[in-house]
Amino acid sequence: MDWIFEEEDYQWWENAQHNAGLWINGSFGVGKSTIASRIIEKFRKTEDPQARKNVAFFFCKNQDSCAVLSSLAAQFLAMQKNITAEQTRIYKSWKGSGIKINPENRVNETIALIKSFLGNLVEVYIIIDGLDEHPEPVEIMKNLALLYDYSPGVVRNYKWIFTSRVNQDLFKVFKSFRNIREIRLRDLRTKKIDEDIRTFARSRLMEKLRSANLPVDLTVGHIVQKSEGCFLYASLLVIQMESQITREDIVNCLDHDWGNGIEGLQSLYNPAWSRCVRANKHFKLLMLLVTFSMKPLRRSELEAAIQNHLTTSPSGLQEGNKPIKGSLNHLCAPFVDISGDTEDPVFFLAHSKVKDYVLERNDFFTKADGNRELGSLCLKYLSDLTFSKSRTAEELRDSEFQARHPFLIYASIFWYKHLEFVEEPTERLFKQVYSFWASRNFRTCIQMQSIYAPYHFAQFIARSIFSDEHDVNYADALPGWFAKQNERGKLAALTYFRFVKEWGYYLRYHPGCLEGCMIGLIGDETFCGGIAKEGSATVALGGQLSLLEAGRAENGASSLPKAVPIRSIICVDEERGMLVASYLQPQTNR
Fold first, then answer.
1. What is the pLDDT of residues 363-383, one digit of tens each?
2. Domain coverage including residue 462
3. Which of 178, 209, 239 is the last residue of a domain?
């Protein structure tokens, strides 16, 4: 792919003495990500330390729309030689509170933070790959547009590269960008991409073809012809040929009617799928996790999830039960790619075409079924006896604890989001969710959410442009169907809502400190394993009201008897000088 460096538009981009952009586009499988990786490698791995550049990059997959800004902010921070006290304050606030508490404000704050970092850097190269593979590419570009033209008032060069398929919505966005050029890979196919395919196929198959006494150049030429400029097709065909043993098998594989180019991808995926199923019984489980996860998972997370799925013990996460080792890296080729830390790499689908392919298979999950299975897997993990033990926020943050339970963060944040896809929940599934909600394990889940996803305890305020009225809403970390299933579900959901409403503020500023929430009676007494009955919930401070007054405060009216004593429970946040009050608990006569 080094030919990209000889292209006139690329050289203009690299040599520009001002902010500049380059949009590299092309159809499926022509090598856009390979080109992006090669550009990153050129700038980061040069032998001359003086020639190394500041490079930030982001490969779009199935992350949320804020992930690109989060990643860039962290990378730009690492490039800083000195940071100011204000930058440190903003970064700690941004990192600690979570970008999704108030998406609009957090995006603006993160962009301001990135600009302050950029102001300290003379030259930066930023590569955003696979825009079209993200569910919200236009939203990403609207945010990046605020950074693209940024100029801190001194000479600075910020060079951007974007790669994607040809996309009309993105085309409209890029038209508004200044100093940007376009490289269309489809226009370069005959003179560039075919040669890359030839080089790739020759390097991979030369020894095998020679040992089978087959003409190397003729065979490789046939591969190039069948690929029709689709690098992905060529790589799949080469993998298929590598698996053949005899000379006759290799010839038959090459002559087989796979179809050509993009149209032949599915037929080439079929034998690869069958080979992976035969090679490892956990293949479909791993594909389930990688395909339907709501963020890319690391090897350690996958191993922990698979281990828990395979165990029948309610305490399957005890120390001594080691996760599967040694087989994941090669388990799903060519369906899964691996990147990042060699000790704990991230796994993600190799191409957007892979997801289309697996969802069309009759022996795999539909989107709804896959999310149900993954949600149930998360629920099983969270329900392990290991997580019924009470722990402090410090214990949950401990690196050794996280290393022993790497899937806990993902499962705590996303379990209910996967179960949202269930259209007709069974009574069995309802009982599983209710049992979890009523267990001490749910306390651990709440603590993890408040530490690693504090937006679960935020207020969402909808304001009207026609009046001063506004609605205050709260996050609901339960499946939407749960409250609609029956009366028990309705009361359980109401209890959780009241908990978030009363103690969300406290948990946002004291993440993980559930022991500080004096909860009292807020509905169903079985919530979190009867947490309302425990000592912290009955430390009474406050005044007495009647249930009638309490009912009026919440509903505007009540038919409850008058003058029944109740007890309000109040927590003082001395640091911010605010009161946080729980719901009111009836006071029994003694």
1. 999 999 999 999 999 999 999
2. 448-586
3. 178
